[in-house]
Amino acid sequence: MLQELRDKSQGWIAKVIIAVIVLLFALTGFDAIFRAVGHNDEVATINGKGLSKALYNSTYEQQQYILSANGQFDGSVEAKEQLRKTVMENLVNYQILIQAADNAGFGYLPAQFVEQIIQNNPLYQSNGKFDYELFKESIRNYGYSSETQYVQDQLEKYYLTQLQSGIVTADFATTSEVLSLANLINQTRTFSYKELDASTINDITKEEISAWYEKHKETLKHLSKWCLSILY
């Protein structure tokens, strides 16, 4: 049996298999081989929660489509590797924010709410009415494969907006800061002034200025100062 397998490996069957592998490498690169033979459905774990390979692949393809459409992706090995790293970093950061919003107790808006916003968006309207075909074409240009994917993406963005608003509106001032602000607002100044007629003042010569300076220069001196800043 081993001899038979060895004989076939040197024949046309082996050549076909090798040709298929070479073609797959040429068309899609090593990443396609990895996806074809891999059995792990997760590419990363963030705080115990898995990041699915499907989400990673769809995000990668979406970003590649956008960059290619704008002439910012040349398809080189270096460009693909950099894009993989960027997509992974962005997805990890994004999932961390989602988890932070989950832990803070925020809730998702109803999908119908987002759909209503989409239908009222002038970008997706023709003659004042929602144009479904225009909508599909627009989101396709942004790399979305389906309207469901786009709606879900918008839901998550609105979800994270709640987190951002919660952080901004949760700002507070300490007692000392309030007192300092109150003192600044209520502070007063006392001053006096005297009006002089410029025509009654004689012109001052450079010699008079120099003589006055020499007489009072000790009072014009300031002690040397230095400033120290420490970063922790």
Structural description of this entry:
The chain has 232 residues and is mainly alpha-helical. Among the domains are: 7-39, no CATH class; 40-103, no CATH class; 106-169, no CATH class. The protein is built from 10 helices and 4 strands. The chain has helices at residues 2-9, 12-28, 30-37, 53-69, 77-103, 111-119, 132-141, 147-169, 175-186, 206-216, and strands at residues 42-46, 49-52, 125-126, 129-130. The strands form 2 sheets. The chain has a two-stranded antiparallel sheet.
| Number of H- or I-type helical stretches | 10
Please, what is the average pLDDT? 77
Number of strands: 4
Give a quick account of the main beta sheet: strands, pairing sense, barrel closure: 2 strands, antiparallel
Distance between the termini: 71 Å
Strand order, sheet with most strands: 1-2
Q: What does the radius of gyration come to?
A: 35 Å
Order of helices and strands: HHHEEHHHEEHHHH
- What's the helical proportion of residues? 55-70%
The backbone outline, from C-alpha atoms, is: elongated
The poorly predicted ranges are 1-10, 12-39
Oligomer status:
single chain
Summarize the structure.
This protein is mainly α and 232 residues long. Helix content is 61%, strand content 6%.
